[in-house]
Amino acid sequence: MNNWIAHWKQKAKRLNVEVYALYVAYRDPRTPWTAKLFIACVVAYALSPIDLIPDFIPVLGYVDDMIIIPVGIVIALRMIPPEVLTDSRKKAHDIAGEGKGLGRVAAAVMIVLWISFALLVIIFFFRLLKR
Predict the structure, then answer these.
(1) Which of 64, 71, 94, 131 is deepest in the core (most CB within 10 A)?
(2) Could you report how far apart the first and last alpha carbons of the chain are, in Å?
(3) How do residues 59-87 score in pLDDT, each as one tens digit?
(4) pTM of the predicted structure, to 2 decimals
């Protein structure tokens, strides 16, 4: 049982480092804008308390997190140039080793992204209603 728990803790830590690497790559000027846009969506979804399928729904609530986030991370990692990804992973390992996280900056970015998305949806629906 302890091996199983240790295995999943290690996978979670590796996933956490990959999300940090995406954040670092997002800030790198060598990363293409299309990758930056996709990375912003993946990181926002990964850090967001808002899910496509709410967690209180049995089984399905966690399945979306177990599928959408890892697949999004894999796609985003493939969109990043190899040299940028190598540098980003090194920086992410350093951040994880120091015990630092994205903290308040990530929370602020998340809030801004979700508010922007909500405003875009509201504007879209108001324009539809006016027609």
Answers:
(1) 64
(2) 60
(3) 777 777 778 888 888 899 999 999 999 99
(4) 0.62
